[in-house]
Amino acid sequence: MAELVYDKDGRLLFTKEMKEEYTLLMPQMLPVHFNMMRKCMEMNGYKVDMLTSNHRGIVDEGLKYVHNDTCYPALLVIGQLIDAIQSGKYDPHKVGLLITQTGGGCRASNYIHLLRKALVKAGYDYVPVVSINLSGLEKNPGFSFTLTMIRQFVYSIVYGDLIVLLANQCRPYEIVKGDTDRKIREWEDRLTNEFKDTSTLRYKKVVENMELIAADFESIPVNRVPKVRVGVVGEIYIKYSPLGNNNLEEFLMSEDCEPVVPGLLDFVLFKINNRVEDVGIYGGYKLKKVIAGALQKYVEKCQNALIDVVKRHPEFRAPEPFSHLHELVQGYLGYGNKMGEGWLLTGEMIELVKSGTPNIVCTQPFGCLPNHVAGKGMIRKIKENNPGANIVAIDYDPGATRINQENRIKLMLANARIALEKELSKEQGESSQSSEIKTDSQQTAQSSIG
Question: Coil, strand, or helix at residue 154?
Answer without folding.
Answer: helix
